[in-house]
Hints:
Layout: H1 3-27, H2 36-50, E1 62-68, E2 73-77, H3 90-100, E3 106-113, H4 123-130, E4 137-142, E5 146-151, H5 152-155
Parallel strand pairs: 3-4
Antiparallel strand pairs: 1-2, 1-3, 4-5
The protein binds zinc ion.
Zinc ion (ZN) binds at residues 89, 91, 121-122, 124-125.
Amino acid sequence: MAESETQASSRISAAEQIKSLALNLRASSADLSSNGELRRLLLLEAESAAEQSYSPYSKFPVGAALLARDGTVFTGCNVENASFGGTICAERTAFVKAVSEGYREFEMIAVFCKKAKDAWPCGFCRQFMSEFGSSLKVIAYKSEAGVQVRELSELLPFMFGPGAMGQS
Length: 168
Ligand SMILES: [Zn+2]
């Protein structure tokens, strides 16, 4: 089997592993974000996604792994552009992939920054993600503090959301 095929199949099995674990936790009414194994698997997916990063300008690869409510995982990486404003972050890439596939409900997103010791999603991504719910859990790995989890409402208090536009 070619190396790329091996990598593809290991990614598929990781995604299946995450889905199965997420659905089992949901069935037992457990808090998904407090499960260490699920956080670890999602962070590994985010780390793997960072390998696809297109970041020739910043040389700051980022990966994200977004867990939808049904257990499906969508990964994303940052994609930079020579016109810097055209750049999209890893978190938004993952969300755009999911939303364009018809997904609207999400549990968690893991973010992996290869070079940052202490990084959370940027303000633009926080706003973007808040469109789909303020209870989303954001998982990040901090070199000194280990795996950290924050609810999006903590990262973006007083957000301008769908409610402000009269949407429920
Ligand atoms: Zn961002």
